[in-house]
Design brief:
77% helix; 675 residues; 33 helices
């Protein structure tokens, strides 16, 4: 009886969290609100989505066609897939049913893009004035734009549409044409700076293949390997489950590309573990949200935004991930230290060693990292295109899946359960098989729809900005308000990025920031790459910044905590993401720009000590509780160390070192008195 009670107490939190996952995903993640297909219709939809993924891979690798034809045919298929998957609203779902008006929207919307694809050459050669006079092109463009916007409302949400709506209204009000509709539609739907611009171009050429690769990677078992690895590395230490959450969420988040999705999926395991260890529910939810959001800035994948950044900046992908390494390490170092100090304050213990994975068992599964290693090698070698590298990595992921079947066969000691080698190889008795390949292609196709739609709407915003010259007006306004104050311009840009990034996917967030906010900083004299990293960081942290902190609220739902409190704690834990962008805006050496290896080592050491000082100051605990003055000194000293420079480093070392020494001596003195 006692044994049964202990079992219930041990597993109840995990079971409860697992049961809540689907409900939380549907509440905070639009992508989870899909139509219900079962039986034969489900198999048909699966095959359609798998074929869509194969089409994306084929087109990016082999198709030799006009860019506009490629992008419009891609979006036409996205419209078809999207209306098959997403109902008009969450509650309007019936099994195996799609209403007539959705069929009409799907056909009309897809036809508009397919018409453009078929006639791309003649449309591009046609002068703007001629196209504007032909009402046929205006009607087709309006249908395509409206179908895309409605699909965006269904699968991405309203925040991005509110932003796009404001820009569209401004465009109509600011034009001097008596009938502005043909001009606006021509520029947004047919122009090279509208829907068919950089966001959709990069999405259809690079991002979709990496999304499909991510789906294969997850099904190969790498997510479980990441969690086991994090457990083996940190699980036994004080507050082990929270440290596991930081590491595993960083690794899984960089592949998944979704702050909310990663918070819910990994959080369903890590949050109950943290609560059971002794962390407050709000703190547990905040740790998972902050770490999952940080996955978007973790190289080498960075939630697919790294590919967009490389295209916008005209630099190699490998240079982007190299420059992103140090800021990402500092970000997660800050969260990790805060988690450790909280564990020390609460006197928490780790997970018993006997319950943790053993390294010798993990070494047997290290082959799961092979697809990621191949991808990084091919991309960084600059000898192959990014899409080719991703396609090869997909094949490696498939081979790794079958390799897992073979290894599983030989590891299984019970000969009766083994079955035949052929059955084991093909995954007939469980494991990676043809169904896993089909499922990966289907999952990749589903994920591509949301990203493509978000990029399409981001293109609408880009088109409005280009048509109205709004970018230069925004730059002039910020310069006028801030005067010659760079810090004020950075603060205003930060606020804009957080507001515009609320509730948006990573890729759409960066597209909007790169078009609206980055030019402001570049005009103020900030290096181009530092400006793009600045807006990227603050667009990402919108997911954990109240009042619209979707990742934090998803973590709160799993943890059964107050949403706003969880958002505030997540913001404090992710303080590095609010500090570091200001540092590399002033001193790009943090992004390894114009530095030598000795400077890199010095910057890394001082920045790590600095982030420790900031984390200690904000948490209010080191070897013991810190008074307000100690917290201020530690925080200021930490900030000085993060900012590269000899004088700031000397001052920071003096302040942080002084507080550390004072805390250490006082702690041991109190310990001696108590003893």
């Amino acid at each position: 009886m006692i044994e049964e009670k202990m079992t219930v107490e041990t597993h109840e939190p995990e079971t409860t969290a697992a049961a809540d996952v689907e409900a939380v995903m549907k509440k905070f993640d639009r992508e989870s609100n899909m139509r219900i297909w079962t039986g034969a219709p489900k198999h048909v939809i699966t095959i359609i989505l798998a074929c869509f993924s194969l089409f994306c891979i084929y087109v990016t690798l082999f198709a030799n066609m006009l860019e506009q034809a490629r992008m419009t045919s891609f979006l036409g298929l996205v419209i078809l897939m999207g209306y098959l998957l997403y109902p008009i609203r969450r509650t309007h779902v019936r099994e195996n049913y799609i209403p007539w008006y959705d069929i009409v929207l799907m056909i009309l919307g897809a036809s508009a893009f397919f018409y453009y694809a078929i006639n791309a050459s003649s449309i591009l050669n046609m002068r703007l004035a001629v196209r504007m006079r032909d009402i046929k092109y205006t009607i087709i463009g309006v249908i395509g734009i409206l179908a895309l916007i409605e699909l965006c409302r269904r699968c991405v949400g309203m925040p991005i549409l509110v932003v796009a709506g404001v820009f569209i209204v401004y465009t109509f009000l600011s034009t001097s044409y008596a009938n502005p509709l043909p001009r606006v539609v021509s520029e947004i739907f047919y122009g090279e700076n509208g829907i068919m611009s950089t966001p959709v171009n990069v999405c259809s050429k690079y991002i979709v293949v990496f999304i499909i690769f991510g789906a294969f990677l997850e099904r190969s078992g790498v997510s479980g390997f990441f969690i086991n690895l994090a457990n083996a590395l940190t699980g036994r230490f004080a507050g082990g489950p929270a440290k596991v959450a930081v590491i595993s969420s960083a690794l899984c988040g960089m592949v998944s590309g979704s702050s909310v999705g990663n918070t819910v999926t990994t959080g369903s395991m890590t949050i109950p573990m943290m609560k059971k260890t002794g962390y407050r529910p709000a703190f547990a939810g905040a740790v998972e949200a902050a770490a999952s959001t940080g996955g978007q800035i973790m190289p080498p994948i960075m939630g697919a935004a790294a590919f967009l950044m490389a295209d916008y900046l005209g630099v190699s992908y490998s240079s982007i991930i190299v420059k992103a390494i140090l800021p990402a390490v500092l970000y997660f170092m800050g969260i990790f230290i805060a988690v450790h100090l909280e564990a020390k304050r609460l006197r928490l213990k780790g997970i018993p060693r006997e319950e943790l994975p053993r390294f010798r068992d993990l070494i047997q599964d290290v082959y799961l990292l092979l697809p990621l290693a191949v991808l990084i090698y091919l991309v960084c070698s600059n000898t192959r295109t990014m899409q080719f590298s991703a396609a090869v990595s997909i094949l490696v992921a498939i081979l790794v899946g079958f390799l897992g079947n073979i290894l599983g066969y030989f590891r299984l000691k019970d000969r009766e359960k083994r079955g035949s080698f052929a059955h084991a190889l093909l995954g007939k008795n469980g494991g990676f098989n043809g169904e896993s390949i089909l499922g990966s292609l289907e999952a990749g196709g589903r994920s591509c729809v949301t990203v493509a739609v978000a990029c399409g709407v981001a293109g609408i915003i880009c088109g409005c900005i280009t048509l109205t010259g709004l970018a230069s007006k925004m730059i002039a306004a910020v310069v006028a308000v801030s005067g010659s104050s760079t810090i004020l311009a950075l603060l205003l840009t930060m606020i804009c990025c957080i507001i515009l990034g609320m509730g948006l996917p990573t890729t759409a967030t960066y597209c909007i920031m790169a078009s609206t906010c980055a030019p402001i900083l570049i005009q103020m004299g900030i290096p181009k790459i530092a400006a793009h990293f600045f807006v990227f960081y603050f667009g990402i942290v919108a997911d954990i910044t109240p009042p619209v902190a979707l990742a934090a609220y998803a973590g709160a739902a799993i943890a059964k905590a107050k949403p706003m409190e969880t958002g505030v704690v997540a913001t404090r834990l992710a303080i590095g993401a609010f500090i570091i962008p200001f540092v590399f805006a002033y001193s790009p050496s943090l992004l390894l720009i114009d530095t030598v290896w000795t400077e890199v080592i010095l910057i890394t050491i001082t920045a790590v000590i600095g982030i420790f000082g900031v984390a200690a100051g904000l948490s209010g605990y080191l070897w013991g509780e810190m008074n307000p003055l100690e917290r201020i000194i530690s925080t200021v000293g930490g900030l000085m160390l993060i900012i590269p420079g000899v004088l700031t480093d000397i001052g920071g070392i003096a302040l942080v070192g002084g507080i550390f020494a004072w805390q250490y001596l006082r702690h041991h003195k109190d310990k001696a008195v108590a003893g």
